[in-house]
Amino acid sequence: MRAFQTLRSQFVAVVAAAVILSNLSVAGILEVAREGELQTARITAAVDRIAAVFRYVMTIPEEQRAPAVEALSGNLFHYSILRAPPFGDVPMNDEERQLAADLYSGERSAYLAPARVRVIDLPRQLNNPLNNDTPMVEITQPFPNGDGWLTAQFTRLPAPSPAPAILIAALFGTILTGAAAAWLAGRVSRPLSALAYAADEVARGRVAPRLPDTGPDDIRHAAKAFNEMSDRVTRTLESHRQLLSAVGHDLRTPLAAMRITAEFVEDEEVRDRLTRNLDELHSMTEAVLSAARSGPGEERRRVDLATLIESVCDDLIELNQPVTVSIEGLAPSNCRPNEIRRAARNLIENAVRYGGCARVSLDREDDYFVVNVDDDGPGIPANRLEEVFEPFVRLEESRNNATGGSGLGLTLARAIAREHGGDIVLTNRMAEGRIIGLRAALRLPREKQPRLRNETPAAPVEAFAK
After folding, report:
1. Contact between 405 and 397 (Cβ < 8 Å)
2. What pLDDT does 401 receive?
3. So what's the pLDDT on residue 206?
4. Nearest to residue 57, comparing CAs of 75, 40, 82, 87?
5. Beta carbons of 390 and 459 less than 8 angstroms apart
6. Which of 86, 190, 216, 339 has the greatest CB tally within 10 Å of its CB?
7. What does DSSP assign to residue 3?
């Protein structure tokens, strides 16, 4: 069950179950012991009463015994005088012998013969004087002069129901322990939830909120260590971004000067070679500046991803690029539109450059929108599908900017996708055992995922215009 996936719910459930089981066990043990003691006390009291009746009946004249026995009988005890033995020579068991010994001791008479006791289970019949279905105890004592037997029958009362006090105590203890467990679980789980949220913020390239160093010692130490780590990571990333930006800007001036100087070279072949190298260096410089600007400066907002991708394709179609797009319906997404535009454009331009065309479509999965960019190129060797995402890695070895690019396009595109909680996956398109093209899938989370705390409330989906 999903309700028991959190640390707090599992902690409460385990503690509550343990308390309930322990209370039930203790209550059961106490009830069994109490039931045994009560049964023993009832039997002892009944035997003492019968002993007193037997002593009385033995002392009155024979002609008065029958009326006295009838008068002493009631709903719980029935007395009768028998002229023939009520049972044969069936031996008594341990319980019956113990009851007979207790009766003989209670009568305190040395001239009386020992009584015979039997525990019987008589059905509701005419020969059952108590007229019930519960086990019955029958005690028979012979008269001293041999004039018959005096018999007493009484019901063994059923076991009492569990004591309400024990059940109330168990319930109260369970509630108290459950409340304490819930408080303790919350004290532990809240800092862990805050830590998970802050770690997710760092993973997405944003500044993580400060974690309060409260709670148990290990939680406080973890929060303090995370705050220090977050500060160091933020400073390091910002320092690298500033360094890249500074290097990129500083390279523009000497590149411009070199381009002017190259125009004065008289040898046309040398001049063209220098110009191509300067163009490649300029492209790499712009890519570095783009990487430096790709930090989390843009705010997220809710846009229609389908319209955004269509606008990117329309821009390229207007430039006479072989791009086709097939997207239907809306795709609301909370993202940084300019970054998603840059990532999609890189994928489409790569498909045009290396595959001769780009066919763009959009699929909808349970948790993701998937922007597919298909081409008809030679594909990529399976062992290099991940390598092409590394900075400055190019499969085309000519170092020609016109055919090989700068080697940063896919790197930037994947970084943007992962900052949004998605990814980019490259797969070769196969037919009849051979590669017929490449598919680049840009996967972005769907809007139904929980919104981050620092995001603005959802607004109507915007159509992202060009």
Report:
1. no
2. 46
3. 64
4. 82
5. no
6. 339
7. G
Place of tokens 């020969």: 127
Q: Give me 367's structure tokens.
A: 């948790």
CA distance to 1, 117, 225, 252, 465, per residue, from 186 (Å): 20, 64, 21, 56, 46
Three-state DSSP class for residue 392: coil
Pairing of strands 323-326, 358-364: parallel
Between CA 373 and CA 360 the distance in angstroms is 5
Average pLDDT per run of 10 along the chain, which is 466 residues long? 61 73 71 67 75 79 83 80 71 73 62 66 49 67 75 68 63 73 74 81 70 73 84 76 71 79 82 80 69 61 92 92 92 88 91 93 92 93 88 58 61 86 92 92 76 42 43
Kindly report the number of other CB atoms within 10 A of residue 55's CB atom.
14
Rg, the chain, Cα only: 47
CA distances from 46 to 40, 66, 77 (A): 10, 21, 9
pLDDT of residue 36: 63
pLDDT value at residue 6:
62
The dihedral formed by the CA atoms of 397, 402, 407 and 408, expressed in degrees to the nearest 10? 180
The CA angle 63-69-72, to the nearest 5 degrees, is 140
Q: How far does the chain reach from its first CA to its final CA, in angstroms?
A: 46
How would you class 1 by CB atoms within 10 Å of its CB: exposed for 0-12, middle for 13-18, buried for 19 or more? Answer: exposed
CA dihedral 331→336→341→342, nearest 10 degrees, is -150
Cα gap 306→298, rounded to integer Å: 20
How many residues are recorded in the chain? 466
**Residue whose tokens read 């960019």:** 373
Per DSSP, the three-state class of 139 is strand
In 3D space, the residue among 440, 98, 60 whose CA is nearest the CA of residue 106 turns out to be 98
Q: What is the DSSP letter of 115?
A: P
pLDDT at residue 22, rounded to an integer: 72
Strands (E) in 314-412, as ranges, are 323-326, 332-335, 358-364, 368-374
* pLDDT the model gives residue 275: 83
Residue 306 CA to residue 226 CA, distance in Å, equals 38
pTM comes to 0.47
Residue 365 DSSP one-character state: -
C-alpha separations of 407 from 126, 288, 389, 396 in Å: 106, 11, 8, 10
Q: Which residue has tokens 């400073």? A: 235
Residue closest to 227 by CA, chosen among 195, 192, 203, 186: 195
Q: Look up tokens 């046309």; give the residue.
A: 268
CA distance 442 to 425: 7
Query: CA separation (Å) from 428 to 78, 180, 373, 383, 435?
Result: 98, 57, 12, 11, 6
* Residue 343: exposure state from Cβ atoms within 10 A (0-12, 13-18, ≥19): buried
